[in-house]
Each structure stands twice: as C-alpha cells, then as structure tokens.
Specification:
Blueprint: H1 10-16, E1 21-27, E2 36-40, E3 43-49, E4 55-59, E5 73-75, E6 78-80, E7 87-88, E8 94-96, E9 113-114, E10 116-119, E11 122-127, E12 150-159, H2 163-170, E13 195-200, E14 203-208, E15 218-223, E16 229-236, E17 245-250, E18 253-254, E19 260-269, H3 272-302, H4 319-344
Antiparallel strand pairs: 1-11, 2-3, 3-4, 4-9, 5-6, 6-7, 7-8, 10-11, 12-19, 13-14, 14-15, 15-16, 16-17, 17-19, 18-19
Helix pairs in contact: 1-4, 2-4
Bound molecules: FE2/S2 (inorganic) cluster (FES) and fe (ii) ion.
C-alpha cells in the first residue's frame, strides 16, 4: 500500500477519481530537467526528465522525513531532496544518501513511483492504488490518433468543479443547443432533443434522432480498461471554414475534489493542403472560438454546488449522463472491493 491516502468509500473514490488508469497530467513541454510539482487525483506528484529525456513521476514526498521532493533538484538524472540530499531514481529507488553514504537503505525502493508516458503532445501518468506490480495496463488511444487520417490540437485548462461534473457535461450533447447558442459552430438546430441510446462495443452511443450534423448531435463512449472512458463527440464545422465534422476526444483528469484538468483534443479528418489550411485557420481563429465555448462550460459547472446531485430531476435527455455515472460507479465499486481485500490480507 502506498503512503498516499486511500479511498474510504465508493463516493470518496469517485470524488477523487478512479485509480489504476492513465491520466493526461500536463503538456509535454511543461516537464524539463527541473522538478515540477503537480496535484492530480488529490495526490502530490513530482515530475522531471532524466538524462535520457525520459519523464519520471514520484509521490512528492521524501521517504526520509517527508519533505517535498519537488523542492529539490535533478542530480545525474535522479531527484535529490532539498532537505538532506537523499537521491531517488524514477523507479523510486534510493540511489544515494550523502549524509551517511553507507546506509543500508541505498538500493531499496522507498518512494512511490508512477509510470509515465509521453504521447500526443502530453504527459500521461498511470495513477495506481499502490498495489501495482510490474507493468501497468497499456496506454491506448482511439483509432483517430493513430491511423494517420486525422489531425488535431489539444486544449488544456482548469475548471473549478469536481471532475464528475465535467464528465457528465461530456456525455450531455443537449446542452450544446442551449448553453452554447450564439457560438460559431454550435449556433443552430432544434431545441427538442429526442435522444437515442444504444450500447455498442466498448461503451454506448447517444444521438439526436431528429437532427444530425448540426450541433452536438452524437456522442459515444469508447472505454479501454486502464486508458479512460473516452467521450467522443461529432463537431460540425461551418461551411465557410471547410464544413464537415470534426471530433472532440476527452475524459477529465481530477486535480483535487474541487478542481479538474479539462483537456480536449479537437481533430479533423483531412489530408494534404486541406489539412494545412485547417491547421492554419484553427490556430488563428478556431482555438479562440473553442475557448469561448469552454469558458461557457467552465462558468456553468463552477456554479453547480457539490450537493446538487442529491437534488436533481433527470430527464430523458440525460440518458448519457445516467449511463456513464453507472459505469464509473461500477468500476469504483470493483476498485474499492479489490483494495479492501488487499488490506484484509
Ligand atoms: S527529508 Fe528528504 S532528505 Fe531528509
Ligand atoms: Fe459544452
């Protein structure tokens, strides 16, 4: 078991975030050869690159007497604690104890290490429950990230809201016709929802039976065990900007109980000069407009109180929200049972 806090109940686990899966924690450019402190899933982490450029993540806690490792510096690729100089590598192994060089602790894995990957312009950390032995589950991405036909950008920002509100928002296509009215790509369409729902391999799809290709009219879930519950949404583009459907890819990264790292990959299926033109237009105008839409979400979600879930009145148009909540709760239940049985051993 790690020295970090462990969830006490399903609701507690859900409030902080599902464990044993990969989370986007920051942009790849944010981590260099100096320690960087990040809070993710209410855990304090320190990240740095070693001599080979590989990114490492440890609990931001020195196993000597608890100082924050992020206050230290990188020494020969390892992290050296600022307080008494103990050094740890990316696996959490103590590599040197300068004050008492012959310590028997040298060579022992004392710090909590979190596996890291660098992919799609970001750093991904496998946030585990402390029972991880060996390699973590594979970090997987939807096909659009790897088949070479799609191109895109990631937007990363913080929301002052629990991550579950962000997740619910991502499986709620109908709010596009209300909250985002007046924005350039989500301006039109019907107000009545009439949602269809269907289970499919790896998840489910919700779509508007009475409209497609106009607003947020189709969202589906792709779930890879250990690699998140991806919400994927078709995103219509105005004709004057080339038309067609783009796609949004996301699942939230909890920071703490009240804050969330919201990231969105916006992708477009284009090649050749059209791809170059779209990337140019996006950089110059599209990203700004996308920010406006996200800002509307941010303000709306920040205003929802923590206890609101106990006073809701769900409608037919909340079918995606109800279903994704159920899936997360089931997984939280399994994770808590597994943790409880390990603790009992
Ligand atoms: S607390 Fe880190 S070396 Fe002493
Ligand atoms: Fe939205």
């Amino acid at each position: 078991m790690t020295g970090t806090q462990q969830p006490k109940s399903i609701d507690d686990l859900l409030e902080v975030g599902l464990l044993n899966q990969w989370y986007l924690v920051c942009r790849d450019t944010e981590i260099g050869n100096k320690p960087v402190a990040l809070k993710r899933l209410n855990r304090d982490l320190v990240l740095w690159r070693d001599k080979s450029g590989k990114v490492n993540a440890l609990e931001d806690f020195c196993p000597h007497r608890g100082a924050r490792l992020s206050l230290g510096n990188v020494c020969n690729g390892d992290i050296a604690c600022a307080y008494h100089g103990l050094q740890f590598n990316g696996e959490g192994t103590l590599t040197a104890t300068p004050p008492t060089p012959d310590s028997a602790f040298v060579g022992k894995k004392l710090a909590v290490a979190y596996p890291c990957r660098e992919a799609q312009g970001a750093i991904w950390v496998f946030v585990h429950d402390g029972t991880l032995t060996g390699e973590p589950l594979e970090l997987r991405f939807p096909d659009e990230f790897t088949n070479g036909e799609w191109s895109g950008f990631v937007d990363i920002r913080e929301f002052e809201a629990n991550w579950q509100l962000v997740r619910d928002n991502q499986f709620d296509p109908v709010h596009g016709s209300y909250l985002h009215v007046g924005t350039h790509i989500l301006d039109g369409g019907r107000k009545d929802a009439d949602l269809g729902f269907e289970r499919q391999e790896g998840g489910f799809v919700v779509w508007r039976k009475n409209q497609q290709g106009v607003n947020l009219d189709r969202t589906w879930l792709t779930h890879y065990p250990g690699s998140g519950y991806w919400a994927i949404t078709d995103l219509p583009y105005p004709k004057k900007e080339g038309g067609g459907l783009g796609r949004l890819f996301r699942y939230p990264t909890p920071i703490d109980r009240d804050t969330t790292l919201v990231w969105n990959y916006r992708m477009q299926k284009m090649s050749g000069w059209k791809r170059d033109a779209w990337r140019f237009l996006y950089r110059n105008r599209g990203s700004e407009r996308g920010e406006h839409v996200l800002e509307q979400d941010r303000v709306a979600l920040a205003g929802i109180s923590k206890g609101a879930i106990h006073r809701e009145s769900l409608l037919q148009c909340d079918i995606g929200v109800a279903h994704i909540r159920r899936l997360y709760r089931q997984e939280a239940e399994q994770q808590l049972n597994a943790l409880t049985s390990v603790a009992a051993e």
